[in-house]
Amino acid sequence: MSLLKRVLIGNPISTADEGHQRIPKKVALPVFASDAISSTAYATDEILVVLLGQAAIGYAAFTKLIPIAVIVAILLVIVITSYRQTIFAYPSGGGSYIVSKENLGSIPSLVAGSSLLVDYILTVAVSVAGGTLAIRSAFGFDNKWTVPICLACVLVMTIANLRGLKESGAVFAPPTYIYVISLLALIVVGLVRIFILKNISEIDPAKVSEEAKKLSQGAKGVTLILLLRAFSSGAVALSGVEAVSNGVPAFKKPESKNAATTLIWMGAILGSCFLGLSVIAARLKPFRGESDATGIALMAEQIYNGKGVLFWIMQISTFAILILAANTAYADFPRLSSIIAKDGYLPRQFSNRGDRLVYSNGVIFLAVIASGLIVIFKGNISALIPLYAFGVFTGFTLSQAGMVVHHVRLKEPRWRISLAVNAVGAVTTFVIALIVVVSKFTEGAWIPAALIPIMVVFFRGIGNHYDRVREKLRAEPGYRAQRHTHYAVVLVGKLNKGVLNAIQYAISLAPERIIAVCVVTTPEEERDIQDQWVTFDVPIELHTISSPYRELTQPVLKYLDEIDAERADDIITVVIPESVTKVSSQWLHNQSAFALKARLLYRPHTVVVSVPIHVDAEDDIDLV
Amino acid sequence: MSLLKRVLIGNPISTADEGHQRIPKKVALPVFASDAISSTAYATDEILVVLLGQAAIGYAAFTKLIPIAVIVAILLVIVITSYRQTIFAYPSGGGSYIVSKENLGSIPSLVAGSSLLVDYILTVAVSVAGGTLAIRSAFGFDNKWTVPICLACVLVMTIANLRGLKESGAVFAPPTYIYVISLLALIVVGLVRIFILKNISEIDPAKVSEEAKKLSQGAKGVTLILLLRAFSSGAVALSGVEAVSNGVPAFKKPESKNAATTLIWMGAILGSCFLGLSVIAARLKPFRGESDATGIALMAEQIYNGKGVLFWIMQISTFAILILAANTAYADFPRLSSIIAKDGYLPRQFSNRGDRLVYSNGVIFLAVIASGLIVIFKGNISALIPLYAFGVFTGFTLSQAGMVVHHVRLKEPRWRISLAVNAVGAVTTFVIALIVVVSKFTEGAWIPAALIPIMVVFFRGIGNHYDRVREKLRAEPGYRAQRHTHYAVVLVGKLNKGVLNAIQYAISLAPERIIAVCVVTTPEEERDIQDQWVTFDVPIELHTISSPYRELTQPVLKYLDEIDAERADDIITVVIPESVTKVSSQWLHNQSAFALKARLLYRPHTVVVSVPIHVDAEDDIDLV
């Protein structure tokens, strides 16, 4: 088991090695920006899915694509400019959670934290679903393989991430660059063929599918709500923009400057690819049904005149960058949940770092929930998208609003300009969040809208609980613990070497009084144990309890109550001999004792002592 | 929880009340014989499913029905005669397991026990599937409801059986009698209309389904293997015949005589109904596909000229008796597994009687496995049947073979005749078991054929384990336990009232030496705890362990090894303070302690003491 763990996860890393885990910009770009960049793989498609699929407005859809894309690009510029300020203001990592905690207080920070956690989970589910669709567009395998392939991807990533951040960067960096270069090449060749060579035609919908052919002929009117819905789908292109500002401390020094440069690069790549793709799509008109080939696949086939090498590189690197995008969430989810856990709003487990400096608990939790979503939504990216954008923009809004308060509080040089930038960001992203939740409410946006408040209540509940416990147990200087005397009760079944040794041990605990208790079902059993008591000349008193219902727990508890009534300040020490065998046969023993112990935990003044009887011990001295 | 349990399960019954649970013959018949009688509801059908469905021999199928039914009926007479002797030889209950244990030894008895356990599970699955098919034949609901309805039936029965045997009899008795009367009425009316009034025609296959119409026109030759397969399906009619002999002690006195009478009644009803149905079916020719209406439903509709009141009574009582048949397994499975558990071949849990004298563990186990089978085989009775008969006849064979040895050993009056009867039974049922497993091997008989040996190995493994543990721990008179001294190690985190009280308690255990151990991650944490130690003037030594990997278990184990090296005969008592809160928030505490405790269980010379800190206690004195 331990060997297996080492092979899969690698050797442990000590705290002292942590500094070496810092990553250079060229590795940071794929690690922190792949999520944002990868959304180019599906954002254009998802706008079209709304316009074509939900409303069947036919060719009219493509005239709306470029305006929507331009608005999304402007939004991108606003958000990037806002986050650039956050990076310099919070060089130790300025995610929405931290920024809103410092500036807006506990509740807004928990809203931001919940939003981000929900989004990280969706990033994994959406990206993996998108990646799988990309390779399905190339290979054309049956839809029934979608969910198994998605789940296999999640599994591989989980193992990769349990191995540690730096190696993740090294493994995942090349695909990002191949994707970006392939996509830029596709766009350039596409633009040249469309606008200069003019030797390319629209994609024939009949070639794609019957469904696409039918869609191409629909022609309903375009409504405002439809445009807002399409825009909401396009706005998912911005998801992941905040990843860089969360990860500032992971950059090489000077951290803020390197992070800001990376952020700008990311914005430039994302914006130009998204706009370029939209322009090409508006001309080539890649009609698709929800489960057909992706727009990029259809356009690559058209631009490169068939499924050649460049087509395959495009599709495989699309798959790769989407997996890498999911990996961003693997870096950020455990990091954020450990921060929340350290603040006392999540169980302490989440703050325990596992081996190799990754927060294993968070990684595993993320993998489990994302897998669940994939199964429930059958790996269909278009079904997952409506859940996605609300959390993203809620997080943005709180982060920018926090920055506004930050500027007002600190009044650093040129704070008025900074305040204006962040204020514009906050208002814009808030409006987008509203648009998303209203226009997509019934299609799935209600899920994060309901889940985030529930999570906040849950986090607060945990926080209040830990506060209360800490307060209750806090000892003032000068506090002295009460002195207790103690009774010992040894639970015995049949007498054997193990039980006799356990009794001997219980005597060594120097209790004020010691008594052995045996639960019997029949008078014969009672006689047997009393005979054995004489045979072995056991030096302590025996008390038998008759239990005609064959129950153990209730009669023992009742007897303890009787003993308890005798003296007030006593602690009762219940000594339970437990047979210990090899792990493989342990389940054959102590099940009744386990139930009793669980119950005794809640009994006041009661301490449980498990005396292990090592059945496989070499000689008697090793029995206990 | 406890109230819910009482409402659903009823009040507990003491051992003294056990005698009152004895049941009269008229209740015993439904309780113990319903399984066997209920097989008339599907046995004829299953013969036809083989002849029609697998080979499509068309009308020729019906000429083979009566000869096969007659052979099954002869087999029934042989088996009943054999079991009648068992009832008198084993008035305290003579299932195959007990008879083969006493006469053939441990391995054959475990084979018999495994066969019966497998069969009881299949009885539940097959009967529930058959019952659901019966009401589907009447109501005509969609096949997608089959599995949910089956599972609901299992759930209801599980609750009914956890309530206790006698009430089960009272609840389930009426339907059996209604079924038997309805079926006899159907047969009599059918025979009269066919042979005397001669005013009834064959069922038109086109009226049933397209599939049936196609089947009626097929005409392949009849092969021997096909006949053997059909016979194997018909032989399931005998399943459940052993139930009466298992349950002898549940009868009113004189037990054996009452049980034998019940057995004869059961045989008479089963045989006459099965033969009568086969004769009618051979004339009315109820063609059916695997998931269409049952033969009984088709014939009832034809005989009663449509779906009148008598048709509905027939179908609903068929459903009811099949549920009752499943109930037989609910009575026998837990009984047999508790017997096997008492012999040490199953975990001790199975021998614990729950409330109300039923063996709750066995009941729940049975329900879970049967539900699994229903889900896997989609509630299709014809898919389950091939798994069924092998175990039944293996059990019969071992039981009869055991009786042969019994007669040779005891040589009671007229033992030679008895021996001959049981020998004929043993040889016949052995041949049938072979026929079943060979002819149905690939259709599912391989499952019990593989499972039964695996179960035997498993039972033997458990038996050997318990034997070894008992032997290892057995104390000879005069044995004296070793005297140990003990070290106490108190595990502390931050100092608070709870920890201070736990230290005080640990001191009261009078250890030779006591030391507090604190695992720290950073030098700051180490300084903090040392400062607190001075502040609170803690009277015991503090040892800090630095754990840069943030692990708890390994560093603590390593330190215990160091302490252990100092003295050889010491027991180390590890005192762990554990916060106890309301059950609902308990999961927020002690997870790390739990992992450590699990590991310490396997460490020699180590006793774990959990000192609960009752966070919600009223005052300090109640803290521990």
Can you lay out the helices and strands and say which pair or pack?
The structure is a homodimer of 624-residue chains.
Chain A: H1 2-9, H2 25-38, H3 43-54, H4 60-89, H5 96-104, H6 106-139, H7 146-162, H8 165-197, H9 205-208, H10 210-217, H11 224-234, H12 243-246, H13 255-284, H14 295-303, H15 309-342, H16 360-376, H17 381-410, H18 415-439, H19 446-473, E1 485-492, H20 497-508, E2 513-520, H21 523-535, E3 541-546, H22 553-566, E4 570-580, H23 591-600, E5 606-614
Parallel strand pairs in A: 1-2, 1-4, 2-3, 4-5
Helix pairs in contact in A: 2-8, 2-13, 2-15, 3-4, 3-11, 4-11, 4-13, 4-17, 4-18, 5-6, 5-17, 6-7, 6-15, 6-16, 6-17, 6-19, 7-15, 7-16, 8-13, 8-15, 11-18, 13-14, 14-15, 15-16, 17-18, 17-19
Describe the structure.
Two copies of one chain form a homodimer. The first copy, chain A, has 624 residues and is of the alpha/beta class. Chain A has two domains: 33-462, Amino acid/polyamine transporter I, CATH 1.20.1740.10; 485-622, HUPs (Rossmann fold, 3-Layer(aba) Sandwich). Chain A has 23 helices and five strands. Chain A has helices at 2-9, 25-38, 43-54, 60-89, 96-104, 106-139, 146-162, 165-197, 205-208, 210-217, 224-234, 243-246, 255-284, 295-303, 309-342, 360-376, 381-410, 415-439, 446-473, 497-508, 523-535, 553-566, 591-600, and strands at 485-492, 513-520, 541-546, 570-580, 606-614. In chain A, strands 3-2-1-4-5 form a five-stranded parallel beta sheet, with helices on both faces. The longest helix of chain A has 34 residues, at 106-139. The radius of gyration of chain A is 32 Å and the shape is elongated. Chains A and B meet through helix 19, helix 20, strand 4 and strand 5 of A and helix 19, helix 20, strand 4 and strand 5 of B.
